[in-house]
Design goal:
Length: 344
C-alpha cells in the first residue's frame, strides 16, 4: 500500500527504525516494584531536563493530568481551568468523576491565556464565615501549546505569581510543551519554571507510540505515583515503551521545527485556495474553514488519494514526524485539484 498522508493529528506517528531498535534492546524490570532501569532512566532524564525534583512515567497524557490534579487537590477542592482546555473538556470529566475535584472553567482569550482578572475573580474565599460556602480553590491549570499557540511566557509568569499569591499551586498541561519550547527557542526547563507540575506527552509530535511524563515537586510526584497505581497506570516491563520515549527525547525534539515549517507551508498553500479560509496557523497546526457543502466531498476525495483530514468544515490539520514537505505539497495540490473539479 502506498503511504498515507495523515494530517488528523500528531498522535498517528509510527516508531522509526531507530526507535524500534532502542525498544528491542531495552533493559527492563517490573516498574511497579521500581525495578525497571529504563523507566528509571527516563524519569531521571526528564527531571533533569526540566529542572524539576522528580518525574513519573504514565501511559497517557490524560492519566498524567488526572494524577496531577488529584495530587494537588483533595476531594471538594476546585481547580481553575480554561473553558476549552483539554483537562476540562477532552478528558471525560475525570477530575470531577474520579477526583471529586470541581472544575472552575473560565473563558480563555484567543491566545489560550486565562485573563488574570478572571482568575482573580474565580478564586473563592476559604475558611470560617463566608468561606464555608465554597469549594476550596486549590490549583490553576494552564495549557501550552493551546490550539498550537505558544502562551506568552511573561503571561505564564504573571499568572503563576497571581495564583501563588492566593495560595494556589500551578499545573501545566504541556502535552505539546516541547513544540512550545522549540518554537520560542526557550529551554523546556525555562518554559516549565513557573509550574509546580507539568504533564508532557511523548506520543504526539515527539513520535513515541505510548507515554507521558509528569514532572514536578517531589511531594506532588509521590502523591501522583500513588494515584497512578489506583488509576490502573502501574505498568510492569514498561521499559520497552520508556526506551521509545528516551529515543524520542534524544533524537526527535529539534525536528519538531520541521513540523512547524511544514505547517506554515501547508497554510500558505491552502491560502491560495479561494474557497478555504485559513483561520489560524501556529506551531504544527493549521485551522481552516471551508464551505460546509464541500467538507464531506473534499474529505472523501482526499481519502481516495490516501490523504486524511478531519472531515468537519472547521478543520484542524496537524503536521508531524510522518508528514514530509513533499507530503504537504501533495496535499495542497490535491485540495486545489478537488476545487478545480468541483467548479466544473
Ligand atoms: C493529547 C492531549 C492530552 C492527553 O494526552 P493523551 O495521551 O491523548 O491522553 C492532554 N492535553 C492536551 C492539550 C492534548 O493535546
Amino acid at each position: 500500500m502506498s503511504k498515507v498522508i495523515d494530517l488528523r493529528s500528531d498522535t498517528v506517528t509510527r516508531p522509526t527504525p531507530g526507535m524500534l531498535a532502542a525498544m528491542n534492546s531495552a533493559e527492563v524490570g517490573d516498574d511497579v516494584w521500581g525495578d525497571d532501569p529504563t523507566v528509571n532512566r527516563l524519569q531521571a532524564m526528564m527531571a533533569e531536563a526540566t529542572a524539576k525534583e522528580a518525574a513519573l512515567f504514565l501511559p497517557s497524557g490524560t492519566q498524567s493530568n488526572l494524577a496531577a490534579l488529584m495530587a494537588h487537590c483533595e476531594r471538594g477542592d476546585e481547580y481553575i481551568v480554561g473553558q476549552m482546555a483539554h483537562t476540562y473538556r477532552w478528558e471525560g470529566g475525570g477530575a470531577a468523576v474520579l477526583g471529586s475535584i470541581q472544575p472552575q472553567p473560565i473563558e480563555q482569550a484567543a491566545d489560550g491565556s486565562l485573563p488574570l482578572e478572571k482568575i482573580a475573580a474565580a478564586i473563592k474565599p476559604f475558611g470560617p464565615g463566608l468561606g464555608t460556602h465554597f469549594a476550596r480553590t486549590r490549583l490553576l491549570a494552564l495549557e501550552n501549546t493551546w490550539g498550537g499557540r505558544v502562551l506568552p511566557q511573561q503571561y505564564v509568569i504573571d499568572a503563576a505569581a497571581l495564583a501563588r499569591s492566593k495560595g494556589l499551586n500551578v499545573h501545566l498541561d504541556g502535552a505539546r510543551a516541547f513544540n512550545a519550547a522549540v518554537a520560542s527557542k526557550c529551554s523546556i526547563a525555562e518554559l516549565l519554571a513557573p509550574f509546580d507540575s507539568a504533564s508532557l506527552c511523548i506520543s504526539k509530535g515527539l513520535g513515541a507510540p505510548v507515554g507521558a511524563v509528569l514532572v514536578g515537586d517531589r511531594v506532588i510526584i509521590e502523591r501522583a505515583h500513588r494515584w497512578r497505581k489506583m488509576l490502573g497506570g502501574g505498568m510492569r516491563q514498561a521499559g520497552y515503551v520508556a526506551a521509545a520515549c528516551i529515543y524520542a527525547l534524544e533524537h526527535q525534539v529539534e525536528r519538531l521545527r520541521d513540523d512547524h515549517h511544514n505547517a506554515a507551508r501547508l497554510a500558505a498553500g491552502l491560502r491560495e485556495v479561494a474557497e478555504i479560509t485559513v483561520s489560524a496557523q501556529a506551531t504544527n497546526m493549521v485551522f481552516l474553514n471551508l464551505p460546509e457543502a464541500h467538507a464531506k466531498p473534499l474529505e472523501a476525495y482526499l481519502a481516495a488519494r490516501g490523504m486524511l483530514m478531519q472531515g468537519v468544515y472547521a478543520a484542524r490539520l496537524v503536521t508531524h514526524l510522518d508528514v514530509s514537505r513533499d507530503d504537504v505539497d501533495a496535499f495542497v495540490a490535491a485540495v486545489k485539484a478537488y476545487f478545480t473539479e468541483a467548479a466544473k
